[in-house]
Amino acid sequence: MPTSLLSLIRRPLIIAVHVMLWIVALLWALELRFEGFPFPEPFASRLPRALLVLVGCRVVAFYLNGLFHGLWRYAGLPELKNLVRATTLASFAFIAVGFMVHAVQMPRTVYVAEWLAAVVMVGGVRFAIRMLRERRRPTSALAIPTLIVGAGDMGESLLRDVQRQLDSKWDVVGFLDDNPRKIGALVREVRVLGPADEATLRRVVTQRNVRLVVLAIPTVAGQRIREVLGICRSLGVQTKTVPSLSHRMTEPSVSAVRELSIDDLLRREPVQLDFDQIGSLLADRTVLVTGAGGSIGSELARQVLWFKPKQLILFDHNENALFHIERELLPQVQRTQLAAMVGDITDRERVEQVFSRFRPEIVLHAAAHKHVPMMERNSCEAVKNNVFGTLMVADAAHAAGAAAFVMISTDKAVNPTSVMGATKRVAEMLVQSRDSSSETRYVVVRFGNVLGSAGSVVPLFREQISRGGPITVTHPDMRRYFMTIPEAVQLVLQAGALAQGGEVFVLDMGEPVKIVDLARDLIELSGLQQEADIQIEFTGLRPGEKLFEELLLSGEAFDTTPHPKILVGRVQSPTADFAKRGIAALRSAADAGDDYAVRHALAALVPEAKLSNLVPEHATPELEGAPALDETAVAH
Question: What residues form DSSP beta bridges with 170?
Answer without folding.
Answer: 144
